[in-house]
Amino acid sequence: MSxxxxxxxxxxxxxxxRVVDPALVEPELLTVSGADHAARGRGRGEQAARGIALxxxxxxSLFSRLGIxxxxxxxxxxxxxxxxxxxxxxxVDELTGVAAGAGLELWQVGLVNARTEILTLAxxxxxxCSTLVHAAPGGTKAVQTWDWHAEFADVWxxxxxxxxxxxxxxxxxxxxxxxxxxxxxxxxxxVMLNILKNAADSAGGVPVHSVLAAALQRGRTVVEAVxxxxxxxxTSSSVITVTGSDAAVMVEIGPAGTQALSADGWFAHTNHxxxxxxxDGALPxxxxxxxxERLALIESRVADAPAPADTAEMxxxxxxxxxxxxxxxxxxxxxxxxxxxxxxxxxxxxxxxxRVVMSxxxxxxxxxxxxxxxxxxxR
Length: 379
Fold this sequence. Notes:
Layout: E1 29-32, H1 37-47, H2 49-65, H3 70-87, H4 89-102, H5 106-113, H6 115-119, E2 130-135, E3 141-149, E4 156-161, E5 170-175, E6 182-185, E7 190-195, H7 208-218, H8 222-231, E8 238-243, E9 248-254, E10 257-261, E11 265-269, H9 291-302, H10 311-315, E12 341-350, E13 355-360, E14 372-375
Parallel strand pairs: 1-4
Antiparallel strand pairs: 2-3, 2-11, 3-12, 4-5, 5-6, 6-7, 7-8, 8-9, 9-10, 12-13, 13-14
Helix pairs in contact: 1-4, 2-5, 3-4, 3-5, 4-5, 7-8
């Protein structure tokens, strides 16, 4: 299909009516390495070709459902790839390898990596997440829920990535076709992500997921990772939480720039801007958003709480009980594709121990879902 053609997309292999119990998903573990970025990308593409194709179909189906034509999807993906090529050309080399290995066109892989930016083209309510940190010298810990479209419960995977060209190894999870998402590297610097919204958000910028990948690849300290994040020309709003052994920084990203937030002890973020510098044009994710209520609930739970002994102890603060603000999400009955939200992954970081624990589903599901643990080794 040429970039100028306009017609309805072909039927997708992705079943838009399916809703999988997130806690019962058994994610694949990708072990990714290569002599250079292009080779590493090709290896990823060959290893995960089926999952990548399914995820491309999933996002194309979602975008089409939201009124974004295939031509517009392709144009927006190519614009973000061009922005990425200006900022981090090695990532484009790697994504080119992913596309070749998976038997897809580069823009299709770009579609997944730039999915946050492309969603700004629709009148859509982004899904919500919650992040909680306890920052202390020699004892920082963090936990997060990743809430997203319920139908996407199994279009993600664990990954263990070996660095190339002097870059760092990193472990975590990503959606198929992405180079990085939420994880920790061998310098024990971790990144987490919550989506935000601003009236001036647009498509075409450096994908926020590529920013996460760069921080994992090259961020040897919290300061270095924050500098990498702030250097990208992004066009969609998010907050990236950067964790290290001694500190954590939440970097809010908006059309007007970035603001770094930090504190000693407990602090949390949900899905609205809280820094004073980026409030112009800031919006709730949707009219029914309970981001402020969720943040207030989490903050009330930790107000008098001591420093956590471990990350498992922190998960109780992210659970949801009857009648409480939905820190954990389950799909609402009767909602259609693009409207059903679920907590798909629960994440725990202990940078001092170099420990990452991830499990399908929500903190309410811990014990029912099968967790995986990574140990990072400094190099």
